[in-house]
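Worked Example 4.2. Consider the chain below.
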Amino acid sequence: MKSKRGARRRAHISIVVAIGLAVALAACGGSSKPRSGGSAGSVTITATAPSASDPTPYPAPSDPMVLAAKAGLVPEDAEQLQYHVHSHLDVFVDGKPIIVPAALGIDITNPAVHTFTSDGVKSYGGIAVPCDKACISPLHTHDISGVLHTESATHKDNTLGQLFIEWNVRLTSTCFANDCAPAKSVAIYVGGTKFVGDPTTIPLKNLEEIAIVVGTPPAQIPNSFDPALI
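Applying the procedure from the previous section yields the following structure tokens:
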């Protein structure tokens, strides 16, 4: 785990639009075919991290190892990097980004788990000496960037459902936490494309961008994330 990721982690979920060939064609009077899921042509919508000063309406639970086991994961006494991949989760409620908290799946009360601070934002992990007991799930978050870390001895993708069990927040195709359809719409996007089915089955593949949109959507739905967050 990297202990410093710079000011990107301080910013609100900002939308950085990198326009390549699509813009050049538009400037010449051309057009591009809309991408399924709402993003147009070759436009990439990249989400960065929310601000540490924002409130966290769904904080990390106090029993991470119990919840990891409930999710079918086997906690370890140190990070296992034989299979190390990163996906990213954004949650929007009525257009507002919701923080995915740091230390999901990590027992930060264990003295072997280090705490790092970069630009006022805390990160957890860096277990140089193994914990005296299980202290970290193979699926966890180190910080509030929204990056989901799979650090495992097993070459198998974890799932979004397992992450939400660790977070202790309800997720179904029609509900996020206490917000449910029809009172509030719930939509899930993978790589900018709307996902139809049970969102808990979504595999957390490397560099996968997942967005949960509740109620009024944001101006843009991200279809990728900034690798510098890793």
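The longest helix spans residues 160-167. The two ends are 8 Å apart (CA to CA). Compare this with Example 4.1 before moving on.
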